[in-house]
Amino acid sequence: MSRRPAILIVNLLLCLLLRSEAAAFSVGSRAILRSLGDTEKKVEVDHAVELNATNFDAVLRDTPATYAVVEFFANWCPACRNYKPQYEKVARLFNGPNAAHPGIILMTRVDCALKINTNLCDKFSVGHYPMLLWGSPSKFVAGSWEPNQEKKEIRALEDWQTADGLLTWINKQTSRSYGLDDEKFENEQLPSNISDPGQIARAVYDVEEATTTAFDIILDHKMIKSETRASLIRFLQVLVAHHPSRRCRKGSAKVLVNFDDFSPSHMQSADKQEVVNNNGKGGLGNFPICGKEVPRGYWIFCRGSKNDTRGFSCGLWVLLHSLSVRIDDGESQFTFTAVCDFIHNFFVCEECRQHFYQMCSSVTSPFNKTRDFALWLWSTHNQVNERLMKLEASLKTGDPKFPKIIWPPKQLCSSCYRSHHHGDMKFRQIDWDQDEVFKFLTNYYGNTLVSLYKDREFLRNDGIDGALEDLVVSTNAVVVPVGAALAIALASCAFGALACYWRSQQKNRKYKYQLHSLKNI
Known about the structure:
Elements: H1 3-41, E1 49-51, H2 56-62, E2 67-73, H3 78-94, E3 105-111, H4 118-123, E4 131-135, H5 137-140, E5 154-156, H6 163-174, H7 203-220, H8 229-242, H9 246-257, H10 259-262, H11 312-326, H12 332-346, H13 350-361, H14 370-395, H15 434-448, H16 451-455, H17 464-471, H18 482-491, H19 493-505, H20 509-519
Parallel strand pairs: 1-3, 2-3
Antiparallel strand pairs: 2-4, 4-5
Helix pairs in contact: 3-6, 7-11, 8-9, 8-12, 8-18, 9-17, 11-14, 11-15, 12-13, 14-15, 18-19
């Protein structure tokens, strides 16, 4: 046998082998390429907030941050591209839900190469790239900057060329010691809430966060049912009239007026109870009740030193206390009922829900004054704290930096105590001056809580508050759509009478005008 056929056979076998391996490699290579492609898709999102002329004022006005850094750059600038990783190292510490130190400094960028930003960059005398400015966010709003101006409320940063240099400069301005390696809930520099009563002003952002979180929980758990609609409507009425955040009042009014649109008509029947649509949340799932910026994903005043402490429960308590001191005397019993029913129907912590509702059920006389309801809620909160003190002490589940205490402590309200008390005294053993307590609650959860909004002109009147006053009247009644009115009628005779009256008057032109104006808030 000649060698030629043998060589041909060997070559044929090699070809087949290589072909099969090539096919296998081709499949594998496509998988590898897909894997690489997937990796490339997982690009880390920038932490610095991109601003432009259309959102510059709004973002800086609405931020809870105390300070802001604005980097002016040009997308064609090589130095700017090279500097971006340095800037991002610092921005990740302060921006976003996973920030190590959220709500303190807002790190932003403006691309001056875009024509839309030409006038904006001119206002701040941008003469080179990159250029960094520092100041209070409110000073940037409708503001400007000149390099030689005498009163410099906005300042040009120095030593910003590296992340280390930028953070060192920031630490000098804030008297802090932030580090580039800081992580969430590590190296926390949280101030004590009992050291400065003015800190409660920053809780207004936590109240917005808690309000949005509460409605998200309701929707996620599909808790809006035929028997709970009236309870939710009553709570919305209270929010419309007395929520400390103007944005949440506005959002609550929109939800209330459009309640039938957000909740399908089949909700009125007992056999189909859950609100369902393609996302499982109903129309409310796409509606930002406290504005599109909320939820922010982090807490400020209510931030705990651990991931599972404070936060939502703290924000909810602040909201309830704020409502209790902002209502009028004639609204106290209605608000009490609305709050108790809301917690009973929509608070998903079963043990907490039961304990709170037991305390609600123990009230035998109606509240006739704001003072009575505010002091009842204060007393209830302290009883809850006492119960949790024991549990957290035995289970080691409390926040070591924010242990449960009797509220308010002497550091915040010495006049609330008629006599000296020992640290281990129970709430009911303390001789309280309730007039002073009510005065403290009114100032703390009323005036001081909204002071930051007032300083930033968040409470400017643009006609919205007047429209809301038309919506919620002194009798605690509210003009609502047919479905909501029917639900209220089924819930109580009083609301039934109101609903009937409304239905008889719905053709009134004045009402139609008011409803139209509210739908366009």
